[in-house]
Each structure stands twice: as C-alpha cells, then as structure tokens.
Amino acid sequence: MAGLDLDRVYIPLRESDQTLVLSSSKLPSDVYDVIEILRSEAAPREVWTKVGRLFNSASRLSDCIRILEDALRPEMEALLSSMESDGSRKVELLVSLAGAYIIQGLEASEKETDYQHMLEQAASVLNQAEALNVNNPLLWEAKAWKEFYNNNLDRARSFFETAASIGNTSAGGKLGMAALLLNFKETSTSKSLFRSTMRDLHCPISAWLGLAHAFLANGQLRNAEEAFERVLHQSAEEYRPEAIEALVNLATIKMNSEHDSGVREALLLIKSALRIQHGAEVNLDPRLLSHASEIFYYGGEVQRAESLALSAAKIAGMRTSPETLGDIRLQLARIAHSHGSYVDALRLYKQAEALQEQSGKDRLGSQVHLGCGLLGLALQEGEKDDYIVDHLQAVLKANDKCSRARRALGVVLAKSVLRKGSLELSVAAREQRRELSKTMLQQGILEDGGDDDIPALITYAQLFELSRPEVAIASYKKAIEAYKRVGKDEPFELLNNLSALQASMSQFGEAKDTLERSIQLVRKRNRLTEGGPLGPRYVTLSYNYARLLEKVGDVNAAQEMYREITNLHPSYSDASVRLGYILLERGDLVGSEECAQKAVTSSSKNSRSFAASLLATVRAKQRAYPSLQKVLEKGSENKLDMYAEVALASFWTENLYSMEPERRNRMLERIHRLLAKVIRENPSNAVAAAGIGCFLAMNHQYSDARDVFSSVVAHRYCGNNFKVNLAHVQVEIGKGSKRRTRDASKTADSSSFQQAAKLYIDAIDKIRTANSDSELLLYLARTIFEAGDYDEALRLTQKLVHLSPQYLPLWYNFAVALQECSLAKMESNVKSVKQIKQGAAELDRAHRLFGRLRSYVPYEGSGPVHAKPTPQSTEAHYRFCKERLNKARVVLVNAEQTERTAQERLEQQKREVEHRLAAEKAEREEAERKHLEEKEALEQRQRLLDEKLQQELVQKDQNEAVSDGGDPDMPYPQEEAVLQSKKRKTVESDEDEEGAEHEENGGPRNTKRNKVISESESAESDRVG
C-alpha cells in the first residue's frame, strides 16, 4: 500500500497493478516531471500530499509548495474531488500547504513584509480547510503552529487544546504542545507529552530532542545530555537540523561543566556542528554561529570567535528572534571588550540589554549586566555610578557567587566615596557605601582570582589608608605581587603611597627601600642618570624622600635635599615650608621667616596655608604678638584653608585668661561664630569640632563638651591632643559631681577620675614634645589628687619638682599635696602612732615650704602650671598648716601616751598569762608523776601474785603425782604443769591489757582478772579440802 514507508511514496499507475516508487534519496531534479506523472496517473490527493511532504523532508521546500499548489488548480480540483466523498484528504493537503508557507516564511524571508505575506497565504489556506471540516484536529494543530511561530503562545495553546479535545492528537500536535508547555515552564507535563509521543511513534527524533530540552530546563543536566546524545545517534547517517541543535546544546553543557576539559570538548562539538551545517545545502543558522562564537571565545580562539559572531550578525534576518540577536550582540561586545575597544563594547552591551528586554527573557542577563558594569567602570566617562552599581547588583542577584562582579561593585562604590569634591551623597550615604565597598572587596579578594585583581587590591588599600594603615600596606603589597606575576613593573605612584603608609607606621627602613625602588623605576623608564634630578613631574618623590630622611633623624641630608628642590623648582613651596621648619628648630628665625615669606606667595592654596602657619610660629617665637594676630587674621580673611580660621580661634582662646570678664565673654562668642562657620562649611573638620568642645567647656557645659571630644578622639593625627581635652572635661565633671554630694556620688566621681587618668597616661605614652611630659604629668597628678589618692599624687608631684626645681608653682602644688596627705592620715578613723608621726612630719614639711614660698619671689618663666599661686593663698595655707601642726603635735603626744599605756597593759597581761601557763604546767607534771608511781606499784603487785601462783601450781602438780603412784622424777607431769602455767599467764596477760584499756576509759583496772584469781584460789582450796 502507498505511504507505509516514511522515506518512500508509492504512486499507483492507472490501468495497471504496478506502482511507481519515489525515494527521498533519489528524487528527480526537476519537480515538474513528478507533477506530470501525478497528473497523468490521476493520483489521489493523499498521494499528492505525501509526495509534497517527501520533497520537504529532502529540504526542497519550494518544490513541495509547487506540488501542493498544483493539486489545488481548478482543473485538478474537479478530478480529485470526484475521487473522494467527504473532503478529508483535501483538508490534509491544505494543512500541509499552510505549514509549508509558514516554514518558508520563517527560513527564507528577508523582510517583515515577506513574512507577513506568507502568513496571510497560510491563513487563507487554513480558512479554506476550516470551511470544509471544522472538526479536523490537523486543522487546529496547523493554526496552533502558525500562532506558535508568530509568538502568540496563549492562542497557540488554545488551538492545541482544541485539537486534543476533538480527537486523537498527531505526533506533531503532541510535540508542539510539549514545546509550548516547555516555554511556559511546565516541565513535568512537557516531559510526559514527549515520552507519550516516543511510546506511540517508536521514539521519533523530535521527541528525543524535546525531552532533552525539558530535562535541560528542569536542571537535570545528565539526563539532558543522554537525550541529546540519543538524537545524535538517530541522525548519524544523514543531515538533520535536530543533530545541529543537539550538538550546540551538548557543547553548552560541556562548557558549563566543572571539568577542566569542558571547553575543549565543547569546541570539538561546535566544530562538528559547523561541518554538518556547511556540508548541507541549507542556510546557516545564526543561533549556531552565535553559540559557536561564545565557545571559541572561551576556548581562547578570539579571532575565530569574532569571525563567527560577525557572520551570525550578517545572516540574521528580520525574523530572527530578539533573544538570538541579543546573544549575537553579546558575543561582539565581549570580543570588542577583549580588544580594548571599550566604547564599541559598551554600545554593543547596551544593544544586547535592549534586545533582552524586548524578548522578555533573562538568559543573557548576568553576562550583559556584568559587561556593562565592567565597561562603565573602565570608561568612567558619561556614566553615572548608580548605572554601574545597578548592573553589578543585578549580576549578584542572579548569581551571588560571581566574585568578579563583587569586586567590581566594591571598586565602583569605593570610587564614589573616595572621589574628591563629590557632593552627590550625604554623609550617611557615603559611610554606608564605604562599609558596603569594604565588605564586597574583602569577600571578593578572598575568593578565586582576588589576588590577581589589581584594581580591587589598590582600591581596598585606599579605603583603609586613614583608618587601618596596616591593612592598606598588606593590600598594596599584594598588588605589587600581582604586577610581578604578570611580568609588569608596578607604578611609581603605588610605591609612593606604600612608602608614605609605611613611614606613618614608623616602618622607616621598609619605607626607604620602597621609595628607593620607586625612584629607581622612574630613572629606568625615563633613562635618567644615577644621582641626577628626577624632573618636574617626579619632584614629589624627591620631596617624600627628604621627608623620610627627616623622620629617621638625618636632618642634615633632608635640609640639603630641600635646598636642592627649592633651587631647581622654586614653585614647589612645600619644600620651602619644611626647610623653614628645620631652620626654626635650629634657632634660625631669619632663615625660617625667609622660607615662609617665599612660600606664602605660592599658587597652591595648601602651601600658602602651611607657609602662613610657619610664619605665625616664627612670630610667636619672636614674641611679636600683634604681628602674629595680623598674620592669622589675614589668613582667615583670604580663606587660605579651613585651618586658618581655626588657628585664629586658637590664638584668641589662649589669650582669654588675660582679658577682662566682659571682653572675655564677647571674645568667646566671636570664637564660637568663627568655629561654627568652619563646621558648616566642612563638617569633617575635627580640629574645628574640638574648638567647639573647648568653647562648651569654657561655658561649663561639660557634658556637651565630653560628647564633642569623644566624637573626634579617634582622629589619626590630632586624636592624642583631643584625648587630653577629653580628660580635662572628665575631671571637671567629676569635680562638679563631687561638689554636689560627696557620699552618694562617690562611685561616679571615681569613675570619671579613673577615665581621665587613663586618658592622661595614654597621652603621656604617645605625645612626645619638650614640655608635654611635665604638663601631662601635672594633669595626671591633679586628677589623682581630686580622686582622693593623695599618696600617689604626692609621688607624682615630687617627680615634677625634680624635673623643674626652679619653678616655684610646682613647689606650691607639692606643699598642698603634703598638706592633704597629712590631713588624710590625721583624720583617719583607724590610725596608728606611725601614721600620726608621718602625717605630722608631712604637715611640718608643708608648713616650712609655705613659709619659704611667702618670702620668695615667684618664678616668672614658662612652666607646666598656667595658674600661679597668689601671696594670699600661700599665706592662708601657711596659717592653716601652722594651726593644724600645733594640734597635730598635741595629738601625737596623746597618741604616744595612749600607746605607752596600752603597751604596759599588754605587757602585764602577757606576764599574767605566762604565770598561769607555768602553774598549769606544774600541775600536769605532778599528775603524770603520781600516775607513773601507781602504775609501778600495780606492776610490782602483779609480779608477786604471778610468782606465788606459779609456786602453788608446781606444788600441786607434785602432790598429785605422788598420790597417783607415779614417779615424782618423771618429767611429764612437770612439763604439763609448766604448759598449763604458761597458758594461764597468756590469758592473764590478755586480761591485763583489757584492764588497762578499761582503766584508760575511766573504769577500775584488773577487776576481771582479780575475779578469776579469786575463783581459782577458791577452787584450789576446795580441791585440797
């Protein structure tokens, strides 16, 4: 029968029983020969339909359409209609022709109008079929395929369901419905339909392909791989489109696998797909070329990947899906990115992003977002930070394990907060971004590839330069190692930053080596002679090297380098400023002033500010205070920098104590307005904030001042000085609480003073200047004195007196400490004569010191004590100590008398105790003697009784022997008597021991034994009688 073989069609010959066989492998080249045979033999519509399908399976779609269209010509219509009754064969022919129109529009159209024309022809043919038989399931399946290819998936699903409700669904209908459900993410139902088709039609290749896609969508990669391999096995002997699709998907699976050979295997599969595609006489598929380009790109063959991507872009027609077009643009963008064409790559990435949004799918989302983010970060031209951040966050949202995106996000966030002059973000937003960037970079650097990401390492170091320089140093070193691994020299800027950080951490040896390495690289790149100048571009390296020499103590070499820099580069005023400071330290005020005057006219605002500060210091050394005030006021008016006004406020603050109260209050308000202005313009100015804290402390607002100083005490450079101010405020808070109530707030006062003492001690360890030790030590002694530890305060004050014995205010403080120590000992509830003597001695010494301080002229030089004692206070302390000293002497005499009386009473009690102990000892010895005598008497009596008993027993035994007629000379009776006597002695000795124990316990001794002896004597007397 015709049509049983899928690869052959049997045409029955009219007026004969024979048939003509057409094979798909041996079709005539001219389709009109076949059409003439069908006409002449009046073949039925079923044969016409099968012949058309045979040509379609041989990839001759146009010939298929000619055959089916010829069967619908009017002259053939009349003949064929007479051969069937219900018209069902015509419906099948019309459905096949509509499907051929749709496929031709999809594969061969170049314009949108051509495709729409083919769809209109398909719709017309389907309308004719619907007019013939509306209940034919093939009709609804064809309409469903038409909507499916037109991306109307909901209508396509409705038509497939209508076809299924009418009757048995064909294999094409089941495969279409399964593919449609796969697009709707209903993978389980889709797999069931694919398997049902495989069972019904003996596993067609399309069913295997659909099942593989279902497994792939469900994440079952192993099952999908086996299904794709089954497709390849069934299409091994001939070209089939399913084979190419299976190869492409297998290559994708291999490329995404974790095996090292995955990319190599994917390349082999793609090459096989390309050979099949080029070997067939069909048009190339842009999807295949795009996938091949991606795999060749990951395989390292960038040139071939670029050729394939360009070919895919060239052959992509109007009907190519937006998803495929976006994939092509992505491959081209990657290749342009790798070539360094950042602008073209960014443009292509944006096109891919737009096509992805048009398709409504997110298959390429992570790759497109990552490319846009990395390129935006590389270009930084016309791109907003938020744009880059949004793309990179989208990558992490889709794949939170993408370390490259995490590092890039950390870099862009860090750049947005490190960029100078950026006012787009608030302070809170900047801090939030800073912390987020630290987290992102820290996590990204620890993951794969982090040690080789140089921009991430450098940015991470920049984030920690101020807060944690040790972390920044480690990150910079990792970046240098990364440069060495790729065979490149590190930039001199990186080494310069690293050297500055090492110097700030007092790692001067390493800082010097790093900076010398930087200078060496500059000489190498610019072919400069050894020892010669570096040139204007690298003058900063020379200046930093001089600063480093200055820090390590080689001031002479640093001074020579500063002079060389100022001679070669007169406009580089920073060197003039540092040279001026060196001359100032050496006492050359004239030379220092010349350097400051030279730098104050610099074009650099910062240099002018430093020069003005130097000039102000020189004026202060010269005691030219009016000129100093003019310099500071001029700097404030010219707004050299934010610290010029702070310096003026500081100068006014230092002179407040010499002003009248009314003028002092006006000056305080002026200082407050000036500092508030600085804070408004620059909220991060810690020095100005500390000035506000000083203003609050002067107005006795100590709690607010404490909050201000606590907020700036962590400042890297000025934090130690702020700690001293915070300690001052803590002392004043403790003193205020102590004045309000001494008992209830004892704990609180102690806590405030303890915190202040810790801050002073920390400042003493970290601040090293000419007068800092004495001044801070005095502050610490005052704090401990206010806390009530007068002995420790006295020790510290005595140490200060040894450091500056010529400064009389220290002797005054020492005398006050002696006075308070004495009073503490004298007024103690529990005190000894030793304490009273020590207190009296301290009070006497304080009295003598105050007496001498009355007659001496106070020392007017500079010292650690700002508030000098007045003659009135000294006189008051002298009289007080004199009065208390007289009382102390009386108290001492009374205490000594009381102590002598107590000592005598103690000695008397001691003698009485000794006498009583001696009497008790004599009584014990007499009792022991009597006990021994009694014991010896008892032992003597016992021995006499034993001897008497022994004699009686021997006599008794002899008498018995004589009466029995025995020989008195026989030894036996005697031996028996002796044995019995020994036995009795043993019993008696045991009884003696028991009696002794009983006597020790308080009972009479030998009672039981005496009873035994008396009984034995009575028995003996009875026997004799």
From TrEMBL:
<dbReference type="GO" id="GO:0000993">
    <property type="term" value="F:RNA polymerase II complex binding"/>
</dbReference>
<feature type="region of interest" description="Disordered">
    <location>
        <begin position="952"/>
        <end position="1025"/>
    </location>
</feature>
<dbReference type="InterPro" id="IPR011990">
    <property type="entry name" value="TPR-like_helical_dom_sf"/>
</dbReference>
<feature type="repeat" description="TPR">
    <location>
        <begin position="774"/>
        <end position="807"/>
    </location>
</feature>
<dbReference type="Pfam" id="PF13432">
    <property type="entry name" value="TPR_16"/>
</dbReference>
<dbReference type="GO" id="GO:0006355">
    <property type="term" value="P:regulation of DNA-templated transcription"/>
</dbReference>
<protein>
    <recommendedName>
        <fullName>RNA polymerase-associated protein CTR9 homolog</fullName>
    </recommendedName>
</protein>
<feature type="repeat" description="TPR">
    <location>
        <begin position="205"/>
        <end position="238"/>
    </location>
</feature>
<keyword id="KW-0802">TPR repeat</keyword>
<dbReference type="InterPro" id="IPR031101">
    <property type="entry name" value="Ctr9"/>
</dbReference>
<dbReference type="InterPro" id="IPR019734">
    <property type="entry name" value="TPR_rpt"/>
</dbReference>
<dbReference type="GO" id="GO:0016593">
    <property type="term" value="C:Cdc73/Paf1 complex"/>
</dbReference>
<keyword id="KW-0677">Repeat</keyword>
<dbReference type="GO" id="GO:0006368">
    <property type="term" value="P:transcription elongation by RNA polymerase II"/>
</dbReference>
<feature type="region of interest" description="Disordered">
    <location>
        <begin position="900"/>
        <end position="934"/>
    </location>
</feature>
